[in-house]
Design a protein that fits this description.
The structure holds 2 protein chains of 2 kinds. Chain A is mainly alpha-helical. Helices cover 63% and strands 9% of the residues of chain A. The two termini of chain A are 25 Å apart. The chains are: A mainly alpha, B mainly alpha. At the A-B interface, helix 5, helix 6, helix 10 and helix 12 of A face helix 1, helix 6, helix 7, helix 8 and helix 10 of B.
Chain lengths: 330, 320
């Protein structure tokens, strides 16, 4: 933005106003925004909102560790003394833990994974795509985009599974020459693997946007006064062409939730006892036939709610910012 | 046309070579490495480790190991299983499970096209009217429902609540019992097809909007060519293009979804094999299945592109 003259400031502002005007009148995207705001608030204030701790195992008339149906009274006893008493609004899981509290805390895990993935993939993808687009048709462009082309077309979940096969499932201790023993938690592996899957998607969109931006007159003008390519790219071109990438990011938040929940469901993602929405579905699989329908129903509904929120929001942002923008990128 | 096909096939070579290097490297990055996996967690004697290493040619330099593996792969031999069914050929494991996965994917694609394409056309023709808004909301919701969760819900309702025997999963060959084969696949097909149909509807809508607004349609109509002739002469042939594009894109969704759906409904397909192999760290099977999926994916996409080029000369001649 450093080279933007002050004259263009009012134009920018009115652009934002115009965007807000369009966005405000799109009821579906407003609904998406509200859903996401609610979900984020739930996750941030989980300790206040969740009725109980996500790991407390409650007692039931049938004994300890026995799942109860939604709306059942639960008690926590210690040496025969009642410590806590309340209602499990969504029932308890196979270890007697309150399902509602686990869902609220599980949101934290699920959103952390999705946000880390999208932010990391967006940053790396933007830099790679920006470089490729700015130095279009150079060896650098060829190198970056060829590597991206190998990763991009692969079905995302299967690629993530393959990469997880390489790094292993769950917490692993690596012995390195430099740092001694390094422990990599399972969560970090999921983030790493899904990030790799998403980098090419951002890189391709960014490359397209950069190629168009470089055609602008101001780029030639900056070059002619001796500003270096890297400076032009980092300070002007990237800033000006990042908009479609950010929209893409919102849309990919939804699919990142989907793919990480899928991995956890397959038993390859977040490992119990950490509460995560996908892990809860994975646990629920063992109890489908014994009648504990609430195990799978409520965490799944929450996943649908989150993904729907991001999809509505992303769709609305795309329409408001650029009606002609093609969702498939380039 | 032939020139185009050869070009596309040649372009697939570096992609598949890249994939094969990644898949090969995977085994060596894996914690513990292949010998640990094969001999299990119990402390094996040094001689045992050495003999297994020699047997698997792990004592040779990496590039020779890669060449050896690639040589086998190019001859169509994906190697033998390590842990799940020790010694069984991976080819056999995949071929045994392929009919199920193919049938599931095919039926789901049919369902998805059957719902998605009409929905997309309705959306495009009635752009910004009630029908368009409704199909958009339904499609958006469809995309947001994870197919594995939908599958679980189906089981909860149909197999547990209503006690339908056919709803519980499992698979019999259509050659043995075509009726129960289709019954068993009904719910998995709906679970997998729904999300894909939503994706197809969204893409079809935007493709159709482009086609309806294309210059040649407007020009033809302006030149006084009757509406039905425009549709017959240009519309029918051009209608294949968006459909093909959509199928190409839907393929990735089908493949991802098949892994999850097979796990939910306990269907012994290729996707289930992959998950089983990952959990048991049978990397020979993992390599084989991933490479197989990569091949299928790349070649179906080439097929789609070639058909695409056949229907749209701009693509075929554009690169020349």
């Amino acid at each position: 933005m450093s080279t933007e003259s002050n004259d263009s400031a009012p134009a920018k502002r009115s652009q934002i106003q115009q965007f807000w005007h369009q966005f405000k009148h799109n009821h579906l995207s407003m609904a998406g925004g509200v859903i996401i705001a609610v979900v984020i608030l739930l996750a941030v204030f989980a300790p206040v909102i969740a009725p109980y701790s996500p790991t407390t195992q409650f007692d039931t008339p049938e004994g300890k560790y026995h799942p109860v149906e939604p709306g059942t009274e639960i008690v926590l006893t210690n040496d025969g003394e009642v410590v806590e008493r309340g209602t499990a609004y969504l029932g308890t899981d196979h270890l007697g833990r309150d399902l509602l509290s686990r869902i609220v805390f599980g949101l934290r895990t699920t959103l952390t994974i999705a946000l880390s993935v999208v932010v990391m993939a967006l940053v790396i993808g933007t830099v790679l795509g920006g470089l490729a687009g700015y130095f279009r048709d150079s060896w650098l462009d060829e190198l970056i985009m060829r590597v991206m082309d190998v990763i991009f077309p692969f079905p995302s979940l299967i690629l993530a599974i393959a990469l997880l096969g390489a790094v292993g499932i769950g917490k692993t201790e690596y012995t390195t020459a430099l740092f001694g023993t390094v422990t990599v938690p399972g969560l970090a592996k999921i983030v790493l693997v899904v990030t790799i899957v998403y980098i090419p998607r951002f890189a391709r969109v960014m490359r397209g946007a950069t190629v168009r931006e470089v055609e602008e007159d101001y780029v030639d003008a900056l070059r002619s006064i001796g500003i270096s390519d890297i400076n032009i790219l980092m300070r002007d071109v990237m800033v000006n062409s990042i908009q479609p990438v950010v929209i893409q990011g919102t849309l990919y938040m939804g699919t990142a939730v989907l793919i990480s929940a899928g991995l956890s469901f397959l038993g390859l993602g977040v490992q119990p006892p950490k509460p995560g929405l996908g892990v809860m579905l994975s646990n629920a699989r063992g109890y489908i036939y014994s009648g504990e329908w609430w195990f799978a129903t409520f965490p799944g509904l929450m996943i649908v709610f989150i993904i729907l929120g991001f999809n509505l929001l992303g769709d609305g942002l795309r329409d408001a910012l650029d009606p002609k923008y093609d969702s498939r990128g380039e | 046309m032939w020139k185009y096909i050869v070009k596309r096939l040649l372009l697939a070579v570096p992609t598949l070579a890249g994939v094969s290097v990644i898949i090969f490297g995977m085994m060596y990055l894996s914690p513990g490495g292949p010998v640990d996996v094969m001999l299990g967690p119990t402390a094996a004697s040094q001689e045992m480790v050495e003999s297994v290493r020699a047997e698997l040619h792990l004592d040779e330099p990496l590039y020779i190991q890669y060449a050896r593996w690639m040589g086998d792969v190019l001859r169509g031999d994906l190697g033998n299983s390590w842990t799940i069914t020790q010694g069984t050929s991976v080819n056999e494991l995949i071929t045994n499970r392929l009919p199920l996965t193919t049938e599931l994917a095919f039926l789901s694609l049919l369902l998805a096209i059957g719902i998605g394409i009409p929905a997309g056309i309705i959306g495009a023709v009635y752009q910004d009217e009630l029908a368009d808004h409704l199909t958009r909301i339904v499609a958006l919701t469809g995309i947001s429902i994870p197919n594995f969760w939908l599958g679980i819900m189906f089981i909860v309702v149909f197999a547990v609540e209503f006690q339908f025997e056919w709803a519980a999963g499992g698979w019999v060959s259509p050659l043995e019992d075509p009726v129960s084969n289709l019954q068993n696949l009904l719910l998995p097909t709906i679970a997998l097809g729904t999300a894909v149909s939503a994706t197809i509807a969204r893409m079809m809508r935007s493709e159709m909007l482009d086609t309806l607004g294309a210059n040649y349609i407007t020009t033809a109509r302006a030149m006084g060519v009757p509406r039905w002739r425009v549709i017959l002469n240009d519309g029918v042939k051009n209608a294949f293009i968006p459909v093909l594009t959509v199928i190409g894109f839907a393929l990735a969704g089908l493949m991802n979804g098949a892994v999850l759906t097979e796990t939910v409904f306990n269907l012994p397909g290729v996707g289930k094999l992959l998950i089983l192999a990952i959990n048991r760290r049978d990397y020979r099977i993992v390599q084989g299945v991933i490479l197989f999926i990569a091949f299928v994916y790349v070649f179906v996409n080439i097929l789609v592109d070639v058909l695409y080029a056949y229907f749209d000369p701009r693509i075929r001649l554009g690169g020349e």
